[in-house]
Design goal:
Number of domains: 1
Structural class: alpha+beta
Helix content: 25-40%
Number of helices: 2
Shape: elongated
Order of helices and strands: HEEHEE
CATH topology: His-Me finger endonuclease fold
Strand order of the largest sheet: 1-2
CATH architecture: 3-Layer(aba) Sandwich
Strand content: 5-15%
Length: 122
């Protein structure tokens, strides 16, 4: 059976879902947190999280959103940030190689003058 209501699709990655879309998501999940299974109530900090993160190619659309409680969402986001940093580091290491850093490099053709604390041309 086709949908009676057109699926919400964000125009940008920062577009927030409409109130009607949020209510459909809550109804789809039987008013339970997608991460913990706890029942969502009116006074809870309800947030809408992307099942597949945007940085992994997830889309900002209704079928990729889930209703979650604030604290579990924060923990999930922290884990995802760690994974994202590791992936970014590994990608840079693979593409650029290991870069060596020895702190501040002296400009070519100069020597360091300990009395003045500056590099001077030789």
């Amino acid at each position: 059976m086709p949908r009676k209501v057109k699926e919400w699709f964000g125009k940008t990655d920062n577009s927030a879902p409409s109130r009607e879309c949020k209510l459909r998501i809550l109804d789809r999940q039987d008013n339970k947190c997608a991460l913990t299974g706890h029942e969502l109530r009116g006074g809870d900090a309800i947030e809408f999280d992307h099942k597949t993160p945007l940085w992994l190619g997830g889309e900002n659309r209704e079928k990729n959103l889930q209703a979650v409680l604030g604290a579990p969402h924060k923990r999930k986001s922290k884990v995802e940030a760690g994974v994202r940093a590791k992936v970014k580091s590994q990608k840079a290491k693979h593409l650029l190689g290991r870069e060596k850093s020895y702190g501040f490099q002296k400009p070519p053709g100069t020597k360091y003058n300990w009395k003045t604390g500056r590099h001077e041309f030789e």
